[in-house]
Each structure stands twice: as C-alpha cells, then as structure tokens.
Amino acid sequence: MFWVILGSSAAILTMFSFVPQIFKVIKTKSAKDVSLITILQLALGVSLWILYGINLRNTIIIIANSVTLITLIILLFLYFNYGRQKQ
Description:
It is a single chain. It is built from four helices and no strands. By secondary structure, it is mostly helical. It has a single domain (2-82), classed as Monooxygenase (Up-down Bundle), CATH 1.20.1280. α1 (2-15) runs parallel beside α4 (59-82), α2 runs parallel beside α4 (59-82) and α3 packs antiparallel against α4 (59-82). The longest helix has 24 residues, at 59-82. It is elongated and about 45 Å long. 13% of the residues are buried.
C-alpha cells in the first residue's frame, strides 16, 4: 500500500509540473523562456513511459504520463502560437 501511495503522489506531482509554465505563457503571451528541446525531449520520454506502462499493465504509469504528455502538447502548441518573442 505504501508504494501505491508513493507512486500516486509522484504521478500527481509529475502530471501537473508544467501547468504553471502553461499559465505563465498564456498570461504573458510569450514563450521566450520556454525551451523547445526540453519540451520535445520530455514528450518523447513520457511517450516511452506510456509504452512501458502499457507493457507492464500499470495504470499509474499510463495515466500519469498520458496527462503529462497532454500538458506538454498544450505547452508545445502555445510555444508555436505565441512564438519566442514577446508581442
């Protein structure tokens, strides 16, 4: 039970780690502080975690990384929508 709670806590922290960055980009209408390489690297990493979770049939790994991937896709969309320069 301890490990399920620990894994779930880690998943929640990871899932929402990019939400503050998303809010900042929306508020400032600028993605100048966002690293495209970081977004792409993390998106690839969580995609691989999703595949790994599917292989293990581990719901926590699958859901946590799917939500994280969605937030990264939103951030990527904002990155290209607002560009790197503040308007």
